[in-house]
Write a structure and sequence with these properties.
about 375 residues, mainly alpha, Cytochrome Bc1 Complex, Chain C, two-stranded antiparallel ribbon, 2 strands, about 65% helix
């Protein structure tokens, strides 16, 4: 009976599942994210066979994997470039949700934000594990954001600075959390399939729909082949230099020498740009929390009408959602470069605009909640 239930569940979600007929390649990104996540788990499992979570042996274990393990370099660079691919598709998936889905599939959006936050945590901890110069000081800066709570800081570090205890903690969490993400992804897909997918023109109740297989499934496989070719090109020729990381991270961490600049991985640059623009660590932490809150509250701008397709033939986009994308891109660019007077002024204006969006989103959510209570 269990086997029959599993087969029926698989058929209902991958074969007979009804989707709108007018989906485009934006709807393939979620499938690609799942494939890349599985690749990350498998390559991470292989790397964990030879990784040692002790400083400075962690650095030398990475060198051992690269030089002495058969195809070790391939697994290592596939894992490090795979996380960049994962976040690239994650951001594309986020933009697609902002444009098309977030106001119509709120439960999918909420679970997606949980996946994004867990992915940030996993990516940051994985970045620290090689015990390179940039990893060490990046972890020092980020964890010391909680300087106002010394107990929490010491709990995260295991001591007063990044050391073997920190690597052990991060290694265990970096190994376990991807499986937690898999569970949340199952919930995410459940809420998505609960009301069917959206589409570029209308809402979930499309009159023209087809089965998921074979047309949409074939489109997913085609997109997966393109992604595989992109990964091969990246591993062979490093066509996207942003994914290669900072060269200082190839140097063994030196607690006594601060690097000239601290640049985290590119997918964390919007946060780092925010920290650089603000005078104190606490203000930067609060602003990053506002960033998360704004993403959560964005979904509350949805229309409360029960039948939307009667008049929503073409989508009307909220200015809040439209402005979020260039704001985050601008903050990311500011995180890459040294600040001067002009870039600081631009960054301050962008932050003010972002905070206004967060405030108006919260006001919109409160108004909507009050209207529900009155009803």
């Amino acid at each position: 009976m269990t086997v029959i239930f599993a087969v029926n569940l698989l058929l209902s979600q991958l074969v007979t599942y009804s989707v709108p007929i007018n989906l485009n390649s934006n709807w393939n990104i979620g499938f690609i994210l799942g494939i890349v996540l599985v690749m990350q788990i498998l390559t991470g499992l292989i790397l964990s066979f030879n990784y040692v979570a002790i400083a400075p042996e962690a650095y030398y274990s990475i060198a051992y994997i690269l030089e002495d393990i058969h195809n070790g370099y391939m697994y290592r660079y596939l894992h490090s470039n795979g996380v960049c691919m994962f976040f690239m598709f994650m951001y594309a998936h986020l933009v697609k949700g902002l444009w098309y889905s977030c106001t119509y599939l709120p439960l999918s959006w909420y679970t997606g934000i949980v996946i994004l936050m867990l992915s940030y945590a996993i990516g940051f901890m994985g970045y620290v594990l090689p015990y390179g110069q940039m990893s060490y000081w990046g972890a020092t800066v980020i964890i010391n954001l909680f300087y106002w709570n010394k107990g929490l800081t010491e709990l995260l570090l295991g001591n007063y600075s990044v050391n073997s205890s920190t690597l052990s903690r991060f290694y265990i969490l970096h190994f376990i959390l991807p499986f937690v993400v898999l569970v949340v992804i199952i919930v995410h897909i459940y809420y998505l399939h609960l009301n069917s997918s959206t589409n570029p023109l209308s809402v979930v109740d499309s009159y023209s729909s087809i089965r998921f297989a074979p047309t949409t499934l074939a489109s997913d496989i085609y997109m997966m082949a393109i992604t595989a070719m992109l990964i091969v090109c990246q591993l062979s020729y490093a066509v996207i230099t942003l994914f290669t990381g900072d060269s200082d991270n190839s140097i063994l961490a030196d607690p006594l020498m601060t690097p000239l600049h601290i640049v985290p991985e590119w997918y964390l640059l919007p946060f780092y740009g925010t920290l650089k623009l603000l005078p104190t660590k606490l203000s930067g932490l609060v602003t990053m929390l506002v960033f998360v809150q704004t993403l959560v509250q964005t979904v509350e701008q949805r229309n409360t009408a029960t039948v939307l397709s009667l008049y929503n033939v073409h989508r009307t986009y909220s200015y809040r959602r439209v402005l979020l994308i260039p704001i985050l891109v601008t903050l990311g660019y500011l995180g890459m470069y040294h600040l001067n007077l002009f870039t600081t002024q631009v960054g301050i204006y962008v932050l003010i605009l972002y905070l206004l969006i967060g405030i108006t989103s919260t006001t919109c959510s409160s108004t909507r909640l009050q209207s529900y209570r009155m009803a």
